[in-house]
Write a structure and sequence with these properties.
The chain is an alpha+beta fold. It is 22% helix and 32% strand. Strands 1, 2, 3, 4, 5, 6, 7, 8, 9 and 10 form a 10-stranded mixed beta sheet that branches.
């Protein structure tokens, strides 16, 4: 099976407005890896009530929120940032957005004040799909793709991100962006 050419690393997957799955309802996912064996991404708009220092007691003092990346391996920590040139072993996803990098270097850069909380986003767990699964979900209309812009990650308010991305897609998506999350059928 070949991968769907509409789906590629560095883009967004946006949940269709009536998705009922509680993990992915109104989710905006940054797709970090996509190939025939499967896909990996992180939900950008689901905050937790944790800080990174709550999870790792050896982490330098750092007031960074942690987001829920997805339901897979929720005992793991991942990060996406805008300091790829500083953090070795980072993978560039798109302009101004990098994934991962050397963890010890990350801690050093934070301790040195070279990385601030608004430069990085931490995630517990990730969203994952086996080979062909994401293509199947795309075919039944669970997701729409959108262009990733660094401002979505580092400047946008997570609670407004789903509507913002839908609106920025234009045309019929502008109307979808205004659909309330919880519709009463009375």
């Amino acid at each position: 099976m070949t991968t769907n050419s509409m789906i590629k690393s560095g883009q967004l997957l946006v949940a269709e407005p009536f998705m009922l799955d509680p993990y992915f309802r109104r989710a905006v996912i940054l797709l970090c890896e996509h190939h025939e064996e499967g896909s990996v991404g992180f939900i950008l708009n689901k905050k937790t009530d944790m800080k990174v220092t709550d999870l790792i007691n050896t982490f330098p003092a750092f007031d960074a929120e942690v987001f829920y990346g997805g339901p897979v391996q929720t005992d793991t920590l991942h990060y996406v940032h805008n300091v790829g040139d500083l953090l070795e072993e980072s993978i560039q996803l798109t302009d101004g957005v990098w994934w991962g990098g050397d963890f010890d270097s990350l801690k050093f850069l934070i301790s040195s004040g070279l990385i601030e909380p608004d430069n990085i986003r931490f995630f517990v767990g990730y969203s994952g799909w086996s080979g062909g699964q994401l293509e199947e979900e795309m075919e039944i209309g669970s997701w729409v793709t959108a262009h990733m812009h660094a401002n979505y990650l580092f400047k946008s308010k997570p609670s407004n991100l789903w509507s913002q991305v839908m609106y920025n897609k234009g045309n019929r998506f502008e109307i979808i962006a205004d659909i309330p999350e919880y519709v009463s059928w009375n």
